[in-house]
Amino acid sequence: MYLNNGVVHLFAISGMHVGIFIFILDKIIRWRKKKLFITSLLWLYAFIVSFPISILRAIVFYTITYLFELLDIKLSSLKILFFTSLVLKS
Fold first, then answer.
1. 18 or 64: which carries more pLDDT confidence?
2. Which of 26, 53, 65, 74 has the CA that lies 20 to 30 A from 83?
């Protein structure tokens, strides 16, 4: 819808902007399930802007980090980056 109207560029942000957005939401929201809400909101945003790779990379990284946290698996950022690249490669 936004792509057809030619206004998708208004929603274009980089992975750094996604990180800033996550940081702000994390500080504002005080719910128990805030990470699930943030993850859902990020995937909704990615859907709205047609999944550009810069956004997708940041969202997949955040989602994998969140899933490993839920499963109580401790991994370094480098290993999570590797998993992100595997997800995006396929």
1. 64
2. 26
